[in-house]
Amino acid sequence: MIDLTRILLSTNITTYHSTPQLLSPASSSSSSHQSSLSSSFQEREREREREREMMGLIHILLSTITKFTTYHSTAPLCGIFLVFFTSITAFFLISIIIRRRNWQNAPPGPLGWPIIGYLPYLSERLHEDLFNLSKTYGPFFSLRMGQKPTIVVSSPEVAREMLKHKEGSFSSRTITEAVRCIAYDGTTLVFAPYSERWRLLRKILTTELFSSRAIDLLQPARQQQVHGLLKSFYTCSKSKTPVNIAESTFVVSTNLISNLVCSKSLFDNLELKEMVRDVFEAVAIPNLADLIPFLKILDPQGLKKRVSKVAQKMDNFFEKLIDERLEEKKKGIQINKNERLDLLDVFLDYKNKGKDECLKQFSRIDIKGMLVDMFMAGSDTTSSTIEWGMAEILKKPEVHRKILVEFEQVIGKNRFIEEADIHKLTYFQAAVKEIFRLHPAAPLLVPRRSNEACEVYGYHVPKHTIVFVNVWGIARDPKLWPEPLEFKPERFLESKMDVKGQDFEILPFGTGRRSCVGLPLGLRMVQYSLASLLHAFEWDFPIDTLEDMTEKVGITLQKAKVLIGIPKPRLLDSIYL
Ligand code: HEM
Fold it and tell me: Residue 58 half-sphere exposure, CB side, CA atoms within 13 Å?
């Protein structure tokens, strides 16, 4: 049955293969509106054509069954075959009747099955599957993920149209069952629908925690964490103990986030590290119940149960953290010696006097939600980018050499790199952009959702459609990036392109009002940690782990073969001590 399904579907796909792409990347909005209408007509024609082909196939199938049953009319197996083939035929017939389009006036895209939609053809490497489909259906296509209408964006032009010109319609998030458990029913900043409340949360974070002044005030904590890492690697180098780059930088990132939120380095504690890992693992598993809503009540993979358990643990931990801070406040203990405020200070003391604000003060749930967001959004993203960066740079000796020459010219070997040096490292900064291009931590962004029904290029997009912006695919499009799979920092030396959300060819932090609020911190952490590791040590990783760039899909896109190696100091011993 599966084979037959595949045969029938491949008939569809071949028909599409021969069709021209829907949108040429250069098409302007108004002309594309007209052309999209005519291509919508062609699309319907193609669909009728496909239906005719399907009917032909079913006709053949039915006549085969008739011949078979006439010939073997007395065989006992015959009845079983008859029932079996009739069921299949009925299934296809019903499917054809139901599977007209993904929805009325939908953008082009592959047809799926009733209920399960296109799911049987998708793997866990969704970004790659969608990238491949975009080669057939163009940069703006539709499909059904289970029962959920889905739009996939695969070019800078379409990304600009959706996330800039029609930003108001695509500023909410897709929320999964796991997210509901972890992120307090999806009310946290990352997942809250675009609303007054979201605007207030975002404004407070931007002004109080991620302003340039606040980021500068956090610099001593970053320095302490990174120097601590270099010193511990030095000790490992002396005892020839291998170090794991992703794991060590994960501790640095999470400790930094915990300094941001409560001015403590919580992640030296193994239990907490494991708890966060458990949360990440549970949240990253795709859940059928998210896409086929009637399965929700059954929780067929037991994921809701699993996530609820880890979410409860995390909640207890955050409760204690808040209690501790309230106790310290009562006793008049001042946590920060400099003028820096951490997230708990800001949110516990927040009292809004303005009449028009939607929140007068924050509840415990609001505050715990902010803590979840910071740890989920800020830790793995940073550490996995650093690991990819090490692999890409060390795999290319000429790039590595150029980076070291620049370090020599700007810093020398008599001290560690400092954050203030980074802006002088032109080639290294270009290399970091190239890392973000090839390895965006969130290849489909944090999936967006349409907050309302709307029209894009003359097509209908229903309310609550899942929107995947395939930034991974856009950054590998040979029309935009010559030799897209090559790691070439040079491409950024001559160009003004940046990763901050203005250039739609490279969007590792997203763009617009829902872009990454932690960008100033994330970018600095990646640049500073990576530069420090390359400047302070020579690295010797097994060639196969370095060469193998297979991706592992988790909460972020990670390197499947982790980098584990023994560092060799490049600087004078006294600098590490
Ligand atoms: C290399 C580091 C990072 C990368 C690649 C990254 C990437 C992203 C992306 C792609 C989004 C979704 C953007 C969109 O939909 O347009 C996002 C959102 C977000 N990020 Fe980051 N991020 C990083 C670091 C951080 C850090 C350090 C924090 C905070 C400590 C953070 C907090 C957030 C939050 C709160 C949102 C949700 C914003 C909203 O919905 O309004 N991120 N990030």
Answer: 19
Are the C-beta atoms of residues 110 and 143 closer than 8 Å to each other? yes
Q: What are the structure tokens assigned to 436, written together? A: 């973000």
> In CATH, what number does 187-440+475-576 get?
1.10.630.10
Structure confidence by residue, pLDDT tens digits, 300-323? 999 999 999 999 999 999 999 999
- Spatial distance between the Cα atoms of 249 and 307, rounded to a whole number of angstroms: 25
CA atoms within 13 A on the CB side of 522: 26
Q: How far is the CA of 249 from the centre of ligand 1 (A)?
A: 18
> Three-class SS of residue 319?
helix
Q: Whose CA is nearest to atom 37 of ligand 1?
A: 190
Residue among 187, 509, 511, 558 to mutate when testing ligand 1 (max atoms within 8 A of CB): 509
Per-residue pLDDT of 425-483, as tens digits, reads: 999 999 999 999 999 999 999 999 999 999 999 999 999 999 999 999 999 999 999 99
- CA–CA distance, 290 with 480 (Å, rounded to integer): 34
At 64 the three-state DSSP class reads helix
Tokens 């509901």 sit at which residue?
Answer: 180
Residue 26 sits at φ, ψ, to 5 deg, of: -90, -5
Residues with Cβ within 8 Å of residue 227, at least 6 apart in sequence: 416
Tell me the C-alpha distance between 269 and 205, whole Å: 27
| 253/266 Cα distance (integer angstroms) | 11
Residues with beta carbon inside 6 Å of ligand 1?
189-190, 202, 257, 373-374, 377-378, 381-382, 385, 441-442, 445-446, 448, 508-511, 514-518, 521-522, 526
Position 122 scores a pLDDT of 95
Going from the Cα of 379 to the center of ligand 1, the distance in angstroms, rounded, reads 10
Best probe residue, ligand 1, of 506, 516, 557 (max atoms within 8 Å of C-beta)? 516
Tokens 């010939």 -> residue = 71
Shortest-distance atom of ligand 1 to CA 507:
10
What's the pTM value of the predicted model, to 2 decimals? 0.85
**In the Cβ-directed half-sphere of 453, how many Cα atoms lie within 13 Å?**
7
Q: Where are the domains of the chain?
A: 2-176, 187-440+475-576
Binding site as annotated, residues for heme: 516
* DSSP classification of residue 20: P
